Amino acid sequence: MVAAIRAQVASMKGSMAGIEARPMFDHIMEQTPEAAGVTYQDGVVGGVPGIWFRPKSARPGNVILYCHGGAYIMGSVRAYRNFVGQIAARTVTAVFSVDYRLAPEHPFPAAVDDAQAAYRGLVEQGAQRIIVAGDSAGGGLALVLLSLAQVNSAAGNGLAPSAGIILSPWTDLAVTGQSVHNRADEELFLTRDVLEAARKFYIGIRDPTDPLVSPLYGKLKGLPPIQLHVGTSEILLDDSIRYAERARAQGVDATAHVWEGMPHVFPASVGTFDAADEALSIMAAFVHDKLRAQ
Fold it and tell me: Is the pTM of this model over 0.70?
Protein backbone atom coordinates (compact mmCIF):
# COMPACT_ATOMS: atom_id res chain seq x y z
CA MET A 1 0.00 0.00 0.00
CA VAL A 2 2.79 2.42 0.86
CA ALA A 3 4.55 1.60 -2.41
CA ALA A 4 1.36 2.26 -4.35
CA ILE A 5 0.88 5.62 -2.65
CA ARG A 6 4.53 6.50 -3.25
CA ALA A 7 4.04 5.92 -6.99
CA GLN A 8 0.88 8.06 -7.02
CA VAL A 9 2.43 11.05 -5.27
CA ALA A 10 5.93 10.87 -6.76
CA SER A 11 5.32 13.94 -8.92
CA MET A 12 4.40 16.01 -5.84
CA LYS A 13 7.49 15.17 -3.80
CA GLY A 14 9.44 18.30 -2.98
CA SER A 15 6.78 20.59 -4.45
CA MET A 16 5.28 21.82 -1.18
CA ALA A 17 7.90 24.45 -0.50
CA GLY A 18 5.78 27.61 -0.41
CA ILE A 19 2.37 29.06 0.31
CA GLU A 20 1.19 28.18 -3.19
CA ALA A 21 1.06 24.57 -1.98
CA ARG A 22 -1.55 25.33 0.69
CA PRO A 23 -4.55 24.07 -1.35
CA MET A 24 -2.71 20.85 -2.24
CA PHE A 25 -1.73 20.23 1.37
CA ASP A 26 -5.25 20.87 2.62
CA HIS A 27 -6.67 18.50 -0.01
CA ILE A 28 -4.38 15.70 1.18
CA MET A 29 -5.35 16.18 4.84
CA GLU A 30 -9.05 16.31 4.00
CA GLN A 31 -8.95 12.68 2.83
CA THR A 32 -9.13 11.34 6.40
CA PRO A 33 -12.63 9.89 6.92
CA GLU A 34 -14.98 11.74 9.25
CA ALA A 35 -15.46 10.32 12.74
CA ALA A 36 -18.92 9.43 14.03
CA GLY A 37 -20.38 10.77 17.24
CA VAL A 38 -18.43 14.06 17.35
CA THR A 39 -19.91 17.56 17.22
CA TYR A 40 -17.91 20.35 15.59
CA GLN A 41 -18.13 24.00 16.55
CA ASP A 42 -16.11 27.07 15.61
CA GLY A 43 -14.70 28.76 18.67
CA VAL A 44 -12.26 31.32 20.02
CA VAL A 45 -10.04 30.50 22.99
CA GLY A 46 -7.66 33.06 24.44
CA GLY A 47 -8.36 35.30 21.48
CA VAL A 48 -7.25 32.60 19.01
CA PRO A 49 -9.76 31.02 16.59
CA GLY A 50 -10.13 27.28 16.15
CA ILE A 51 -12.59 24.40 16.16
CA TRP A 52 -14.02 22.52 19.12
CA PHE A 53 -14.47 18.76 18.76
CA ARG A 54 -16.80 17.28 21.37
CA PRO A 55 -17.46 13.53 21.46
CA LYS A 56 -20.35 12.06 23.38
CA SER A 57 -19.60 11.14 27.01
CA ALA A 58 -16.50 13.35 27.19
CA ARG A 59 -15.57 14.11 30.81
CA PRO A 60 -15.82 17.79 31.80
CA GLY A 61 -12.53 19.49 32.56
CA ASN A 62 -10.44 17.32 30.20
CA VAL A 63 -9.17 18.94 26.99
CA ILE A 64 -6.69 18.10 24.25
CA LEU A 65 -5.12 21.18 22.63
CA TYR A 66 -4.15 20.24 19.06
CA CYS A 67 -1.58 22.02 16.84
CA HIS A 68 -1.84 21.06 13.16
CA GLY A 69 1.09 20.41 10.85
CA GLY A 70 2.19 22.12 7.66
CA ALA A 71 5.80 23.29 8.17
CA TYR A 72 4.52 26.51 9.82
CA ILE A 73 3.46 27.81 6.39
CA MET A 74 0.53 25.52 5.49
CA GLY A 75 -2.36 23.67 7.09
CA SER A 76 -5.58 24.77 8.75
CA VAL A 77 -8.01 23.53 11.36
CA ARG A 78 -10.57 22.95 8.60
CA ALA A 79 -8.23 20.75 6.59
CA TYR A 80 -7.53 18.77 9.78
CA ARG A 81 -11.19 18.59 10.77
CA ASN A 82 -11.68 14.88 10.06
CA PHE A 83 -8.35 13.76 11.52
CA VAL A 84 -8.74 15.71 14.75
CA GLY A 85 -12.30 14.44 14.92
CA GLN A 86 -10.90 10.91 14.85
CA ILE A 87 -8.63 11.75 17.78
CA ALA A 88 -11.54 13.21 19.74
CA ALA A 89 -13.71 10.16 19.04
CA ARG A 90 -11.02 7.59 19.92
CA THR A 91 -9.94 9.34 23.12
CA VAL A 92 -13.50 10.36 24.12
CA THR A 93 -12.02 13.74 25.03
CA ALA A 94 -12.92 17.25 23.91
CA VAL A 95 -10.32 18.77 21.57
CA PHE A 96 -9.65 22.38 20.67
CA SER A 97 -7.71 22.61 17.41
CA VAL A 98 -5.94 25.96 17.36
CA ASP A 99 -5.79 27.94 14.09
CA TYR A 100 -2.46 29.58 14.82
CA ARG A 101 -1.08 32.19 12.43
CA LEU A 102 1.15 31.01 9.59
CA ALA A 103 4.37 32.29 8.07
CA PRO A 104 5.46 34.10 5.98
CA GLU A 105 2.58 36.48 6.70
CA HIS A 106 3.10 35.92 10.42
CA PRO A 107 6.61 34.60 11.14
CA PHE A 108 8.00 33.40 14.46
CA PRO A 109 6.96 33.90 17.24
CA ALA A 110 3.34 34.26 16.08
CA ALA A 111 2.62 30.50 16.19
CA VAL A 112 4.16 30.16 19.66
CA ASP A 113 2.27 33.21 20.92
CA ASP A 114 -1.03 31.84 19.61
CA ALA A 115 -0.46 28.39 21.09
CA GLN A 116 0.34 29.92 24.49
CA ALA A 117 -2.69 32.20 24.32
CA ALA A 118 -4.97 29.25 23.52
CA TYR A 119 -3.51 27.23 26.41
CA ARG A 120 -4.07 30.09 28.85
CA GLY A 121 -7.56 30.55 27.45
CA LEU A 122 -8.44 26.91 28.11
CA VAL A 123 -7.35 27.33 31.73
CA GLU A 124 -9.44 30.49 32.04
CA GLN A 125 -12.43 28.60 30.66
CA GLY A 126 -12.12 25.99 33.39
CA ALA A 127 -9.96 23.24 31.92
CA GLN A 128 -8.52 21.13 34.73
CA ARG A 129 -6.38 18.72 32.70
CA ILE A 130 -4.82 19.61 29.34
CA ILE A 131 -3.01 17.26 27.01
CA VAL A 132 -1.02 19.02 24.28
CA ALA A 133 -0.89 17.29 20.91
CA GLY A 134 0.26 17.97 17.37
CA ASP A 135 1.86 16.61 14.23
CA SER A 136 4.88 17.52 12.11
CA ALA A 137 5.60 21.25 12.61
CA GLY A 138 2.56 21.32 14.89
CA GLY A 139 4.22 18.52 16.85
CA GLY A 140 7.28 20.67 17.32
CA LEU A 141 5.07 23.59 18.31
CA ALA A 142 3.24 21.35 20.80
CA LEU A 143 6.55 20.35 22.40
CA VAL A 144 7.60 24.01 22.67
CA LEU A 145 4.24 24.74 24.31
CA LEU A 146 4.66 21.82 26.72
CA SER A 147 7.96 23.25 27.93
CA LEU A 148 6.63 26.79 28.27
CA ALA A 149 3.49 25.66 30.12
CA GLN A 150 5.55 23.48 32.45
CA VAL A 151 7.97 26.29 33.27
CA ASN A 152 5.11 28.72 33.89
CA SER A 153 3.36 26.24 36.16
CA ALA A 154 6.54 25.59 38.15
CA ALA A 155 6.78 29.35 38.70
CA GLY A 156 3.22 29.40 40.00
CA ASN A 157 1.70 30.80 36.82
CA GLY A 158 -0.94 28.54 35.36
CA LEU A 159 -1.83 24.89 35.00
CA ALA A 160 0.80 22.22 34.34
CA PRO A 161 0.11 20.13 31.22
CA SER A 162 -0.96 16.54 31.85
CA ALA A 163 0.83 14.91 28.90
CA GLY A 164 1.86 15.25 25.27
CA ILE A 165 0.88 13.23 22.19
CA ILE A 166 3.18 14.00 19.29
CA LEU A 167 3.11 12.64 15.73
CA SER A 168 6.15 12.80 13.42
CA PRO A 169 7.35 16.08 14.97
CA TRP A 170 9.76 18.53 13.41
CA THR A 171 11.92 19.07 16.48
CA ASP A 172 15.15 20.22 14.80
CA LEU A 173 14.86 23.13 12.38
CA ALA A 174 18.64 23.00 11.97
CA VAL A 175 17.88 19.79 10.00
CA THR A 176 20.80 17.78 11.37
CA GLY A 177 19.19 14.33 11.67
CA GLN A 178 20.77 11.52 9.65
CA SER A 179 17.34 10.35 8.51
CA VAL A 180 17.12 13.48 6.34
CA HIS A 181 19.68 11.70 4.16
CA ASN A 182 19.25 7.98 4.74
CA ARG A 183 15.43 8.01 4.56
CA ALA A 184 15.17 10.47 1.67
CA ASP A 185 14.20 7.84 -0.90
CA GLU A 186 11.50 6.34 1.34
CA GLU A 187 9.92 9.69 2.24
CA LEU A 188 6.68 10.40 0.35
CA PHE A 189 6.52 14.20 0.34
CA LEU A 190 9.26 16.02 2.22
CA THR A 191 12.81 16.87 1.17
CA ARG A 192 15.61 18.75 2.85
CA ASP A 193 15.02 21.67 0.47
CA VAL A 194 11.34 21.83 1.47
CA LEU A 195 12.25 21.93 5.16
CA GLU A 196 14.89 24.60 4.68
CA ALA A 197 12.56 26.75 2.57
CA ALA A 198 9.85 26.53 5.22
CA ARG A 199 12.39 27.32 7.94
CA LYS A 200 13.40 30.50 6.10
CA PHE A 201 9.77 31.61 5.86
CA TYR A 202 9.21 30.88 9.55
CA ILE A 203 12.33 32.19 11.30
CA GLY A 204 14.36 34.05 8.67
CA ILE A 205 17.98 34.30 9.85
CA ARG A 206 17.18 33.43 13.48
CA ASP A 207 19.21 30.65 15.13
CA PRO A 208 17.39 27.38 14.28
CA THR A 209 18.64 25.82 17.52
CA ASP A 210 16.70 28.31 19.66
CA PRO A 211 14.60 26.06 21.96
CA LEU A 212 11.50 28.13 21.14
CA VAL A 213 12.04 27.13 17.51
CA SER A 214 13.52 23.63 17.87
CA PRO A 215 12.39 21.83 21.04
CA LEU A 216 15.16 19.25 20.59
CA TYR A 217 17.60 21.81 22.03
CA GLY A 218 15.52 22.83 25.03
CA LYS A 219 15.70 21.88 28.69
CA LEU A 220 13.30 18.96 29.01
CA LYS A 221 13.58 18.08 32.67
CA GLY A 222 10.24 18.19 34.47
CA LEU A 223 8.05 17.66 31.41
CA PRO A 224 4.95 15.46 31.75
CA PRO A 225 4.71 12.03 30.05
CA ILE A 226 5.08 12.23 26.28
CA GLN A 227 4.07 9.67 23.67
CA LEU A 228 5.50 10.01 20.16
CA HIS A 229 4.61 8.16 16.95
CA VAL A 230 6.82 8.15 13.87
CA GLY A 231 7.33 6.00 10.78
CA THR A 232 10.60 4.58 9.53
CA SER A 233 9.87 5.86 6.01
CA GLU A 234 10.19 9.56 6.76
CA ILE A 235 13.07 11.99 6.86
CA LEU A 236 11.98 13.31 10.28
CA LEU A 237 12.45 9.90 11.91
CA ASP A 238 15.51 11.08 13.85
CA ASP A 239 13.67 14.18 15.07
CA SER A 240 11.41 11.88 17.12
CA ILE A 241 14.04 9.38 18.20
CA ARG A 242 16.57 11.98 19.32
CA TYR A 243 13.94 13.98 21.19
CA ALA A 244 12.71 10.89 23.05
CA GLU A 245 16.28 9.93 23.94
CA ARG A 246 17.11 13.42 25.25
CA ALA A 247 13.86 13.58 27.20
CA ARG A 248 14.45 10.20 28.86
CA ALA A 249 18.02 11.23 29.71
CA GLN A 250 16.55 14.20 31.59
CA GLY A 251 14.09 12.04 33.52
CA VAL A 252 11.00 12.45 31.34
CA ASP A 253 8.62 9.53 30.75
CA ALA A 254 8.94 9.69 26.96
CA THR A 255 8.13 6.82 24.60
CA ALA A 256 8.68 6.80 20.84
CA HIS A 257 6.57 4.28 18.94
CA VAL A 258 8.48 3.64 15.71
CA TRP A 259 6.32 2.09 12.99
CA GLU A 260 8.05 0.01 10.34
CA GLY A 261 7.47 1.25 6.79
CA MET A 262 5.01 3.98 7.78
CA PRO A 263 5.16 7.46 6.22
CA HIS A 264 4.98 10.93 7.73
CA VAL A 265 1.93 11.45 10.02
CA PHE A 266 0.56 8.04 9.03
CA PRO A 267 -2.16 8.02 11.75
CA ALA A 268 -4.12 10.42 9.53
CA SER A 269 -4.51 7.55 7.03
CA VAL A 270 -7.36 5.92 8.95
CA GLY A 271 -8.98 3.27 6.79
CA THR A 272 -5.87 2.93 4.63
CA PHE A 273 -3.26 1.62 7.08
CA ASP A 274 -4.03 -0.82 9.89
CA ALA A 275 -1.17 0.89 11.72
CA ALA A 276 -3.14 4.16 11.74
CA ASP A 277 -5.96 2.55 13.71
CA GLU A 278 -3.49 0.78 16.00
CA ALA A 279 -1.64 4.02 16.70
CA LEU A 280 -4.88 5.84 17.50
CA SER A 281 -5.82 3.05 19.90
CA ILE A 282 -2.45 3.39 21.65
CA MET A 283 -2.96 7.16 21.89
CA ALA A 284 -6.42 6.65 23.36
CA ALA A 285 -5.11 4.26 26.00
CA PHE A 286 -2.38 6.78 26.87
CA VAL A 287 -4.91 9.60 27.23
CA HIS A 288 -7.19 7.54 29.44
CA ASP A 289 -4.28 6.40 31.60
CA LYS A 290 -2.85 9.88 32.13
CA LEU A 291 -6.20 11.53 32.79
CA ARG A 292 -7.22 8.81 35.23
CA ALA A 293 -3.94 9.25 37.08
CA GLN A 294 -4.86 12.88 37.75
Answer: yes
Query: Which residues touch 66 (CB under 8 Å, ≥6 apart)?
Result: 80, 84, 87, 95, 96, 97, 98, 133, 134, 138, 142
Give phi and psi for 102, each to the nearest 5.
-110, 150
> pLDDT of 166-217, one tens digit each?
999 999 999 999 999 999 999 998 999 999 999 999 999 999 999 999 999 9
Closest CA to 214 of 120, 116, 118, 108: 108
Write down the domain spans for the chain: 2-293
User: Residue 40 carries which side chain, given as an amino acid letter?
Assistant: Y
Q: Between 274-293 and 81-91, two packed helices, what is the crossing angle to 10 degrees?
A: 50
Contacts of 8 (CB under 8 A, 6+ apart): none
Would you name the residues annotated as active-site residues? 136, 234, 264
Is-contact 55 92, C-beta < 8 A?
yes
Fold of the domain built from segment(s) 2-293: Rossmann fold (3.40.50)
Q: How far apart are CA 68 and CA 98, in angstroms?
A: 8
